[in-house]
Amino acid sequence: MRIAIIRLSSFGDVVISASMLAGLKNFGNYKIEWFIDERFEGILEYSPCITKIHSLPFKKLLKNISGIFKIREYCKNCGDFDIVIDMQGLIKSALIGKFLNTKKFVGFSKSGVREGLASFFYTHKVDISYDANILQRNFLVLFKYLPEFQNNPITLDRILPIRNQGLGISYRFIDENLKNLFLKSVGDERIYTFIFILEASIKEKTYPIKSYLSLAQSINTFLQNCHFYILWYDDEENANELKSMFNKQSIKSTKLPKLDFNALKFCLIQVDCVIGGDTGATHLAWAMGTNCITLYGNSNVTSGKNMRNTCIDRVLLGNPYIVSNSKKFEIANIESREIFEIFKHKVYDKLQKDN
User: Is the pTM of this model over 0.90?
Assistant: First the structure.
């Protein structure tokens, strides 16, 4: 069976959708092809589950009629698909799916889709609330109309344990200097390693570096032998400042270089724990199977569509998280001691069992 998945963007959403790939691949003899904006192609690159990645500058092309005609021409030349699945639920993603040749186009119903008009394009609709858990939504839209699933339904619990098999890494293209940054031990002494994610798409999802310093001090006192890696995107000055603060406190740390998606995936699986806001790299750590602690803004049950507000029912399962009590829907309000307690009682205990 030939399946087309449409999830054009964004970083975190692509990652969460891709966490279902291994389960899908194991469920049937499927050829999986993914349509994605070229900016995010690297997330899916080297996935053992994907037969082909259709990467185009969709965001740019969708801005004008000539671009839309180019997309249509490309889609019509892709051949016939047994099923097309729109995991994004936007008018633009539904339009792309409509251009593809298929008799079965799956998407969310009007009450569950992000943009209501998109649901009119689908031949088969999944009726689940937009505010339902994001993993459950991804699972249902991907599996519900597969013949094998209808004959022998499985649950999300079967899929999540193998989520780390859906995203691949090419070690061939990992720089040796980057590999050498990650030491697991000094002599017989184990080193506990962490990645702090400094940036996010909006400021409300960004945790202050002074709070990261306080958290590192608590962890360093507790473990005594640990190392902190600083992950940054655009604000290198902020990363340098945190690195300087660590040095003054004699806390062992490394500022990571700027990373492509392949190198980022490599780094995330090298450490014991990743800590960051509700952003793509944090979700990628979860999808790769690394312990992570995610920091969220307030719970808001009325407006899951406002990405600055967190509808807590949507958070990733099996992922220790903390929700801010701020009235500004931001994570800066979270005390570092709260994060430390989550690490101590949930992540550290798991690390000890895994050893």
Answer: yes
